[in-house]
Amino acid sequence: GIENIAKHEKELLDYATQEIRKIEGVQIIGNAIEKASVLSFVIEGIHPHDIGTIMDKQGVAIRTGHHCTQPTMDFYGIPATARASFAIYNSRKDVDALINAVKKTIEVFA
């Protein structure tokens, strides 16, 4: 049921969070304990719209922008974020693709 879906999404979010924290230059935005299966982040020196473009070319779909939270962006002093969302149809393989795409994006802008 719905509890299993929520558990699956949380497991993916936890795994993605653990893996993305290992990448130098990546900052996670938002650290609520109880939150939706959404991972917002920025990469030092790379505009989130550029992150989205490079990741799209690698076949990884994310959202970029303000996400209807301009006051939050102002609070954090950032122009926008990149955001990955996880759902019932995602797997660890998708998270691994995300992590690899983040690393490749950093390489492109190095």
From TrEMBL:
<keyword id="KW-0663">Pyridoxal phosphate</keyword>
<dbReference type="Pfam" id="PF00266">
    <property type="entry name" value="Aminotran_5"/>
</dbReference>
<dbReference type="InterPro" id="IPR015424">
    <property type="entry name" value="PyrdxlP-dep_Trfase"/>
</dbReference>
<dbReference type="InterPro" id="IPR015422">
    <property type="entry name" value="PyrdxlP-dep_Trfase_small"/>
</dbReference>
<dbReference type="InterPro" id="IPR000192">
    <property type="entry name" value="Aminotrans_V_dom"/>
</dbReference>
<feature type="domain" description="Aminotransferase class V">
    <location>
        <begin position="1"/>
        <end position="98"/>
    </location>
</feature>
<protein>
    <recommendedName>
        <fullName>Aminotransferase class V domain-containing protein</fullName>
    </recommendedName>
</protein>
